[in-house]
Amino acid sequence: MAMDLSDYARLIGMEVRERYGRFRGRIVGLDMTPNGEVKGIVYENDGVILSRGIEAFRVREGYVEVGPPSIFRAEDCMSKLNLLKLQFEAIYSGDRQGPMDSRALTDEVERAYNEVKATVEACIRSLEARRERLEERKRWLLRLLLSMDVVKKLGMVDERGYLEAYEALETELFRVYREIEDTSIFVAELSAKLEDIEAIKSGAKEAEEIPEIGFPEIKVDGHNLAKEIIEKISVPVQAEGEAAK
Predict the structure, then answer these.
(1) In the Cβ-directed half-sphere of 95, how many Cα atoms lie within 13 Å?
(2) In the predicted model, what is the mean pLDDT of residues 25-30?
C-alpha cells in the first residue's frame, strides 16, 4: 500500500526491529528530498544513527521491520502471484455464475501476469545472488570460529574472552543460516507458484484445442428400406407344375 508523507511521519518514535534479531532501535527521522519525497527512515541503535531506504523496511503491527530488500520484494511477489492464480482459476473454472466476457478478462489478467512474471523472475535471480553471498558469509564465520579454537589452544585468549567471542560469532552464524533458509524457501515458492499458474493456463489452452468429434448425418428413407427388407426375406413362389417336377 502506498504511503504519503503523513503516513511516514506517524512512524517517528516507533520501534525498529531487524528481521533476524540483530538489533532494535527507534525511528528518529525521515530521509527526504527537497520536494518532500520520502527516501527512507532514520533510526537510532545504541547511540548510532542509521538509515534505511523505503525498499528495506516494512510496517508491521506495532513496529517497523528492517531487512533485506530482496526478501521484502519476494513477499510482495508472492502476494501478487497468489491473487493472479485465483483470478486464472476463476476465469477457467466451469462453475462460475453470471455473465462473464472470458476473452476480455483473460487478456487483461494475462497482461498483468506477464508484468508480474518478469518482476518475479528478476526477484528470483536477486535471491539466488543473495544466497551465494550468504553462503560465503557462512564460510567466513566458520573460519572465524575455527581461528578462535586455534588461539584458545595456543593460550592466546582467556576462557571468558573466548566464550564471549565464540557466542557472538555462533549467534551470527545461526542468523545467517536462517537467512539462507528464508532465501531458499522464497526461491522455491516463487518458482512453484509460476509453475502452478502456467499449468492452469496450459490446461485451459489444451481444452480449447481439443476438436469436437462429429458424426455424419444419416438420412433414412423408410419406404425404400422396408421394400429392401421385404425383398431379401421373401421366398419366390414356384408354379405348381414346376414344383411337381
Answers:
(1) 1
(2) 97
